[in-house]
Write a structure and sequence with these properties.
Elements lengths: L1 H20 L5 E4 L14 E9 L8 E7 L4 E10 L2 E7 L2 E8 L11 H31 L8 E9 L2 E3 L6 E2 L2 E2 L2 E5 L2 E5 L9 E4 L2 E6 L3 E6 L6 E8 L4 E8 L4 E5 H7 L10 E7 L22 E5 L2 E5 L10 E6 L3 E6 L7 E7 L5 E7 L4 E5 L1
Antiparallel strand pairs: 1-2, 2-3, 3-4, 4-5, 5-6, 7-8, 7-14, 7-16, 9-10, 11-12, 11-15, 13-14, 15-18, 16-17, 19-22, 19-24, 20-21, 20-23, 23-26, 24-25
């Protein structure tokens, strides 16, 4: 009997240990721009704040984490309620006392699971209301510009990985600024980052939507070191993507109605006839596209691949998880443009027959050299 009780107690102890080990911290807030800014004096990051306490935070403060974009690095942080602010005292190994304003919906109340739920409920209600307003604006915008007169729709945006950013982030880098030039029929506009006023356009998710006449020309240049500037042109009749192009730092995008005609030609290039094998010596691939610290004149470079309906411009942060060898399927018609940023390792691209794996073409590039392949 005593042995049975002992086993029961033992089982209960194990159960309690298992439960305690699997306590999941409740995430109260995640970064979306309303609370955290200039936390470490620069850099790009996201954050999470939880309701879990930890000995690392003296047992009285709550735990959070800071996720550095593109660096695959995470730092823990400690926080507590302080009136209408959140007080952060530690980030990783750095002791740092920072007061950050709480969302206005929470105000002087403590940030708890209950107030966080109310905050997100109000945010979601506001999003639904904003979406209705935007949908009404969209309907009015498009209704006043018939497809016959404006057959194309251009979407101009700025991104970092999969995150959309305000367009001006791609048009200013310190004292350097770039422009967007649009000629559509007899309409002509030149937009700067301080004034994105273009004829027949409207703001859309931080970017710009421009309706285009049958004859048009668009020119733009990316100023940002790490952001990607994007142009996507849709056929309004079919809503199909008629043209797509992206640009890294200092790269140009130039498109016109002839670009649409070329990209719309029938092609069987969606079937994989070839594959590209891309490497950077024995290093991870992103090393050949990332600016080298301490090397004069070094800058980030890009890898551009177009094959059939597939189009992608890769920056180094997009290649962080690609390892030392990257294989990309290609159709019978394709274009590859790449530039090596590294002064030590060679960028190498092999084009192989998809079936036999026979190398059909091979090209390497040293620092700042280009590889341009077209089939």
């Amino acid at each position: 009997m005593n042995l049975k009780i002992s086993r029961t107690k033992y089982a209960l102890c194990l159960l309690m240990i298992f439960i305690n080990m699997n306590v999941v911290a409740r995430v109260l807030l995640t970064s979306n721009g309303e609370t955290f800014s200039n936390l470490m004096g620069g850099g790009s990051y996201t954050y999470e704040i939880t309701d879990q306490k930890s000995d690392d935070c003296n047992g009285e403060w709550f735990v959070g984490r800071l996720i550095w974009t593109g660096l695959q690095k995470t730092d823990n942080l400690c926080w507590r309620n302080s009136g209408s602010n959140l007080e952060v005292k530690k980030i990783g190994f750095f002791e740092k006392s920072v007061y950050l304003p709480k969302p206005v919906e929470i105000g002087d109340k403590d940030l708890t699971a209950e107030t966080a739920d109310l905050f997100y409920q109000k945010k979601n209600e506001q999003k639904v209301q904003d979406q209705r307003i935007n949908d009404d604006k969209d309907r009015q915008f498009f209704a006043g510009r018939p497809i016959k007169e404006f057959p194309y729709q251009a979407k101009i945006s700025c991104s970092y990985g999969s995150n959309q950013l305000p367009l001006m982030a791609c048009m200013q880098n310190g004292n350097l600024t770039t422009n967007i030039e649009v000629r559509s029929g007899q309409d002509y506009s030149m937009a700067q980052f301080t004034n994105l006023n273009i004829a027949n356009s409207m703001g859309s998710n931080g970017g710009l939507t421009v309706l285009l006449r049958p004859t048009f020309q668009i020119k733009m240049q990316n100023a940002s070191k790490e952001m990607t500037m994007n142009l996507e042109i849709l056929d309004r009749q079919s809503n199909a993507v008629a043209y797509k192009k992206s640009a890294g730092q200092f790269d140009y995008i130039s498109a016109n109605n002839n670009s649409i005609s070329r990209s719309s030609q029938p092609s069987n290039s969606n079937s994989s006839a070839y594959e590209a094998e891309i490497s950077c010596g024995y290093q991870p691939i992103f090393i050949c596209f990332m600016k080298q610290g301490g090397v004069y004149g070094s800058f980030n470079t890009t890898l551009e691949i177009r094959s059939g309906n597939f189009y992608k411009l890769y920056q180094y942060q997009d290649l962080m998880n690609s390892g030392a060898l990257m294989n990309v399927p290609l159709g019978s018609s394709f274009i590859i443009n790449a530039q090596n940023s590294n002064n030590t390792f060679l960028l190498n691209i092999k084009i192989k027959d998809k079936t036999t794996k026979k190398v059909m073409f091979e090209k390497s590039a040293g620092q700042f050299d280009f590889i341009r392949i077209r089939n």
